[in-house]
Structure formats: C-alpha cells, structure tokens
Amino acid sequence: MDEEKKETVENEEKVEETEKVGTQANENKDEGKAEKTYTQAEYNALDKKLKEKYEKKYEGIDIKAYKEWVESQKTAEQKESEKETEYKNTLSKNESLEKENKALKSGVNTDDLDYVIFKVSKMDGDFNDNLETFLKDNPKFLNSNKGEKKEEEINLGGNHTEKGNTDLSKMSYEEYKAYRKNNG
Asked: What's this model's pTM, rounded to 2 decimal places?
C-alpha cells in the first residue's frame, strides 16, 4: 500500500514538472523575439523596391485588354446574375425614393425624414396608410408651417419696420444699396 502511494506521488510530481517545463517553453518562445520596427526611410525604400518589382513583373500587360478578357470568360449565367442584381438594386432605390417623396409630400420635417420612413416601413400593411396613421399619432414630425409663409419682422433701421419677406432679387440696385446700408 505504501508503494502505491509512493508511485502516485512520484507520478504527480512528474506531471507537475512536465507542466512547468511546457509553461517555461511557452514563456521563453516569445521572450527572445522583439517586434521589428522600421524608420520612414526604410519603409519608403522597401515600398519603392516592391513597386519596382511589380511594375517589372506586369510590364507590357494591357489592363483594358485584361478586363475585356475577364469579361469574355464570364458565362451567360454570371452575366444574367449581374444584370438581375443591378435590376434589384435599381428597384430598391426607386422604392426608397418613392417613400421619401410620399413622406415629404405629407409634410414630414426633413430632419426627421429618415426616422419616419424607417418606422413606417417596419409597420405591416400599405406604406401610405401606415404613414398617415403614424403622422396622426406623432404630429411632432410634421412641419409646423406646412405650406404657409411666416411673416418676419424686418428692421430697416430707425423707427420704421416692415412686415413680410424681403426678396433681394426683385430690388433695384438703389433699393438694394439702401437695404444694405440700413441692415449693415
């Protein structure tokens, strides 16, 4: 019985020693290797060397002819697949533009446009009906001055004030000079 215990203890000691050796080997493996750093001059020289190597390797190859060759190697199925993908992308873009147009025509603030379109698109059913329902429930996303012009008070200097929008493009040169003189 004592011999069995001794053998077990000896085996455990050997296992521990083996584990220590393995751990030391792993630690020592990374110890001697330092990461190589390059100066800008070394990097530029290496970059130049690689560019020259590849320019020499691909010298005389016409890129346009290569692209044509690659295109000719495609099968009819691949070409059809590319056209189908392009068609789907165009339809998707068209649909998103239509949604954006409908939302803008409904009076959605341009700042909130993406959010409203996202929320309404996630709803089940027709986009138009969902947009109408969403805007009824969330009027904060609508333009506050939908279609109506706000009258601003314009100070022309002194005691005189004028109400309305000033359209500079409709002023004569003398009127514009007077306007600029009064408004700085």
From this structure: 0.41
